[in-house]
Amino acid sequence: MERGALEAKVVERKQRARRVGATGPQGGARALAAEEADLFDLGGLETTTGYVMRRAQMAIFGDFLARFAELDLKPAQFATLQLIAANPGQNQSAIGAALGILRPNFVALLDELERRGLARREKSDADRRSHAVTLTDAGQSLLQRARAAQAAQEQRIREILGEEARESLIALSTRLWRGLS
Amino acid sequence: MERGALEAKVVERKQRARRVGATGPQGGARALAAEEADLFDLGGLETTTGYVMRRAQMAIFGDFLARFAELDLKPAQFATLQLIAANPGQNQSAIGAALGILRPNFVALLDELERRGLARREKSDADRRSHAVTLTDAGQSLLQRARAAQAAQEQRIREILGEEARESLIALSTRLWRGLS
DNA sequence: TATTGTTATACTCTATAACTATA
DNA sequence: TATAGTTATAGAGTATAACAATA
């Protein structure tokens, strides 16, 4: 096969892949389309709480990534900005722990936010081992835009479920999380 | 520091790590304990559908891993066994697709189930490219035990939420997944 | 040409060990 | 000795490209 044809083929595959695996790279598996799953008998999985919640959660994740692509924010970054904004001056480890992020893994996440000028670490005077974390003005204003994007996602969910059911889903998820913790 | 003391310290750390990060290695982050998150103002995250669902889903995941450790089954393996049992003789790619697992990644998963004598691949006569997948007797009987473990988890959820709320959570998650697909 | 199964590979997220500087 | 932040590293899970066999 000659050069031109091969390259064309590669480009075509990339495009198809982009269409099919539309969720893109993240922590979870790609969002499962209902059309694919509906062709099969799920054999009980459809009444398994963990399975159906995972499926839904990954669909939300995929939707989130599309909405936040423009802001270049991943879910963990958005959550981090929210938590810093609500608890300015807290330790970096404390912020990470509240999000369930292990200390070593939180370093790079914060490095990136700092590199982008969104967050700031300052050595604490009281305990010079710890770093007090705050948002910069740029961080504040990006968070404003992120909150708008998040509100839009919540609105989409409201349109799918209705407001009462949406609140119910949040309440049930929270109760279950507490019960299992 | 001498040898003995260092080794003792290492062992101690391992034990602590096992206690704290009790969820073990998986696809998601470790389960977030309510006690840690409750120390902070979540800044709106607590009414964000995606965030609260992820938190709950990861708690279920952690509980699942503990229950299934004895059977040596991870969620994806359990789901695969369920789907094969309900759709015996299907293509390996079709089974994988119904679970949202990409074809290349499903190969190793099936390899492992086959290695353990739980599933079997057979070349199809109709289309000799494709592999029809079925469960072995050992696979069937492990699946029986796995279903019992799964029923126990569902019972735990029932105890936390009540049966009506549990069914509601499943229905809402499914509706949301379909709506976002 | 297209599809099934496969291999190889890269990237992200998560987990553990161990270091440093402070306490 | 213990803790906060860090580095290095290993392991899952997921994604893409490419190939052989078959259609």
Which consecutive residue ranges of chain A, at least 5 long each, have pLDDT under 50?
1-29
C-alpha-based Rg of chain A, rounded: 20 Å
Write the CATH fold name of the domain at 73-181 in chain A: Arc Repressor Mutant, subunit A
Order of strands, main sheet of chain A, comes to 1-3-2
Largest sheet of chain A: 3 strands, antiparallel
* Helix content range of chain A: 55-70%
The name of the CATH superfamily of the domain at 73-181 in chain A reads Winged helix-like DNA-binding domain superfamily/Winged helix DNA-binding domain
How far apart are the first and last residues' alpha carbons of chain A, in Å?
A: 58 Å
Largest interface, Cβ cutoff 8 Å: A-B, 78 and 78 residues
Query: What is the element string of chain A, with H for helices and E for strands?
Result: HHHHEHHEEHH
Instruction: Say how many strands of chain A there are.
Output: 3
What is the CATH architecture term of the domain at 73-181 in chain A?
A: Orthogonal Bundle
How are the secondary structure elements laid out?
The structure is a homodimer of 181-residue chains.
Chain A: H1 3-20, H2 34-37, H3 49-68, H4 75-86, E1 90-91, H5 92-99, H6 103-115, E2 119-123, E3 131-135, H7 137-161, H8 163-180
Helix pairs in contact in A: 3-7, 4-5, 4-7, 5-6, 7-8
Chain B binds a DNA duplex (23 and 23 nucleotides) through residues 10, 13-14, 17, 21, 24-30, 74, 76, 91-93, 101-107, 121, 127-131.
Short description:
Chains A, B: GO terms for molecular function: DNA-binding transcription factor activity. The structure is a homodimer of 181-residue chains. Chain A contains 8 helices and 3 strands.
